[in-house]
Amino acid sequence: MAEPMPIPEPTPVSQPFWDGLAAHRILIQYSPSSGRYVFYPRTLAPGTLADDLQWREIDGAATLYTYTVGRRPTGPPWADALPQLPAVVQWDVGPRFSTELVDVEPADVRIGMRVTPVFCDLPDSGMTLLRYRPADT
């Protein structure tokens, strides 16, 4: 039997992001001083260092920026979850997000393909993870 999967540990700064995912909503920060969305959650806006960050909902539509196919487990918790498809997607609103591709065969993955969010609830932990699949499925 594989070890249990590690789960994220929200911080006071990132808690709204995780609460949003639990409600199947994607909340990320927006900085009026820089006029752009930012991710990862932080206390000051990058570039301006303004404390004007606001949590806003996005639809999560994105393009696949990069990925890899993991055919060997990265650790014991992933021994039964092969192949793995770790990826980075570029949200339409700007920032990039590290994730995992689901519901797709490795041979069908293409850089630049449109992807759509998938909310993966982990009942034992109460956490929800954000994964992505091809937009045409």
From TrEMBL:
Transmembrane segments: none annotated. Pfam families: OB_ChsH2_C. It comes from the Bacteria. InterPro entries: ChsH2_C (IPR002878), NA-bd_OB-fold (IPR012340), Thioester_dehydratase-like (IPR052513). Coiled coil: none annotated. Residues 55-119 form the ChsH2 C-terminal OB-fold domain. This is Acyl dehydratase. It comes from Mycolicibacterium sphagni. The lineage of its organism: Bacteria, Bacillati, Actinomycetota, Actinomycetes, Mycobacteriales.
